[in-house]
Amino acid sequence: MGTANTLMYISGKGIVLEEPSVVAIDRRTEELRAVGKEAKSMLGRAPEDVHALRPLRDGAIADFDATTIMLQEFIRRAYEGNPIVQPRMVIGIPSSVTKVERRALMEAAAQAGAREVDLIEETIAAALGAGLPVTESTGNTIVDIGGGTTEVAVISSQGKVVSESIRVAGDELTESIIQYIKKKHKLVIGENMAENLKIRLGSVYFSEENDEVEAGSAVLRRTTLDSMVEVRGIDLLSSLPKSAQIQASEIREAMSEPINAIVDVVKITLEQTPPDLAADIIDRGILLTGGGALLKGLDVLISKETGLVTHMAAEPLKCVVLGVGRVLEDKSLERVLCDRSRLI
After folding, report:
1. Structural domains in the chain?
2. Has residue 24 got a pLDDT over 80?
3. Which residue from 97, 229, 310, 326 could staple onto 101, CB 3.0 to 4.6 Å apart?
């Protein structure tokens, strides 16, 4: 259950659901109007009687009722409408989530129909999903950049040796683009427009090479033609519709502050790493997971700043849920769970 996307894995079946963590609620009846992709398309476009929202913020519940409704619907879809399913659930969470936030998440899952809820920290799950040998007594460094948080951890022997977490990630990058365009172009744009700019133009280093960027289930081919994109919004001065041309260099500038914060937390984590694990980290380097790992040039920047080889996981958007799936299917891995609760 990520801030940006929710993915579900059923033991023996694999990933069965991948949807944006967005719901649309009828303001009058408080009933569900849309969820997932359909609800996301309504953000900033919903009629006055519909409230489209993202119920999770910074990896924690921001709206308990909306989270429960969303989870109920996702479970119904994953199990093809079977009304008697009461699954055991393992949910990935950021390490920065408080005990109160953890309990709220477990209660939301229980109200959505879970018979038992276990929690696992996302860095551990991502490492498992990426195929890192976390059960061995060797050091592995992972940087998981999600929608609401960036998690950095050095993992060894099925546990965290050192870890840091900041609530700066994909959402912060998107918001930085919104604020930059508002300040420089006097243009107010929506979240979906800013996210599209991040996907099409977002990079850390300039490059004229063509490349492909995965965005959910779609793959966008970014070329030199995408060095400038037209955006449309509301003029801050006249309050009338207006368009502007935005260059890739502007998006890099807009995202520089949150990107620097992410790089800094990686360096802080490495500085705390025990010397005995240093050799392992030098050999294995740093692995990037999460949607933020797709940002062009981020691996190069982190490598330059840390002096360590940095590479992206094969399926960065799915590492956490694949790791959760491994825990569901392999009881020997249950010791990595951070919270357990038999609910019924």
Report:
1. 5-124+320-342 (3.30.420.40), 128-168+256-317 (3.30.420.40), 170-254 (3.90.640.10)
2. yes
3. 97
